[in-house]
Amino acid sequence: MTLIDTVPGFSATLAALGDELGVAFPAEDLTRRLGPPLDHLLADHLAPEAVAGAGDRFRELYRDHAIAPTPVLAGAHEAIAAVRRQRGRVLLVTGKFPRNAGLHVDHLGLDVDHVEGWVWGVGKADVLRAEGASVYVGDHVHDVEGALAAGATSVSVLTGGSTRAELEAAGTHVVLDDLLAFPDWLEEHLLTTRLAALEADLAGRESVLVAFSGGADSALVLAAAVRALGPDRVAAATAYSDSLPASERGPAADFAASLGIPVLTPATREMEREGYRANSGQRCYFCKAELLDVLGPLAEEHGLRQVATGTNADDVVAGFRPGIRAAAERGAITPLADAGLTKAQVREASRRWGLPTWAKPAAACLSSRIAYGLEISPARLARVERAEAEVRRVLARHGLESADLRVRDRDDHASVELDADLVAGDLAGRSGAGVVEEVCAAVRAAGFAEAGLDRRGFRSGSLNDDLAPDRADNPLAAATAADIG
Fold first, then answer.
1. 116, containing H or E segment
2. What keywords sit in the KW lines (predicted)?
3. Which domains does the chain have, with CATH numbers?
């Protein structure tokens, strides 16, 4: 990635070298040609036998003359941050002397994972391939050569000595005016390529049964499968059980119908699994195992070759997700995760495709509201569902709403989680105290002895905090640590 403006430092070092050698190097001309190895640039101005020594001396002088005056390019830090947001690595592959390149990185505080120096043109391809680079950003036609030879996407910026016409003639895939344009380009590039990978994956399947919860992730898988395979080779399966809020069933059926595909509604009996009812840290494993044990034979019965889930790329790296392991053990495919699509990209793709689920809040199963160690039962789940419905009604009476809402069952005590902005805004201070009391009263009326508002606001998976093995007040520490390991 091209990150610094090398002209000031190069010019200063060249001037110092020229003073020592008694040579008036044409700095302006040479800086226009920056990119090739130094020896190539010096060869036209020195005797052949003097070039190697002059290059060595230039590199010695570089530390004192080039590091301080060399600025970072506009947008460089933002470009690196954009790569980080996508969980990517940043490589600096340069023709510069490696130690001097590292000095620039340290001096400018560039968040770079790996620096590889003294490589040029097509020679950069070996490094790019070895490091698994998919995009290479450069400013010279020889950077384009390296990217293309490595099979990487070549992104060129007009901050070096090569013109747009030269870069395009070399075969670069895209030309940007500067690095400031890179974050938006990267976001669009990844979304486009990942959606293409999603559709290509699904197109290679003979037929698919999608485990469809009604949420944004599985909705996108369903829509993509219809695009790739056609409605005749796709079906949705929405499992009905005490864990699925009744309010989710109608919208899920309507969405599937809008795609022109059948929706199957098998009953799942996770409640009959002792491991599920026990509600240890492995509860989601038993839940997903039950779901896939039902959907596998159902898919076979309907002549559908694959069962797909809505697991996305964020889920895979989110840490403790035993349900993903259970699905993988049963051969379920994960098209979103395999294509690298994150939750944010799922929502953006859904918005572009006109899917009504694009902004739908996450709606985890009702069992996710029950504190670990408390036995799951239909009565507990019904109490939580009833309490959440009542909280929404209270908020609506005051002209308020919370996109994310959870009533966490901690046995006799319920903890209410609402959008953090709502908690810090309309419900903060004396003005919101009355609404908070109404919310808590509604939760108590639903069957809880005590209720309180969590002032930290909604936090996805907040009950997982109870699984931390170093929590001194966690009675499940020993058991759950063993389960997780």
1. strand 114-116
2. Hydrolase
3. 193-363 (3.40.50.620), 367-484 (3.30.300)
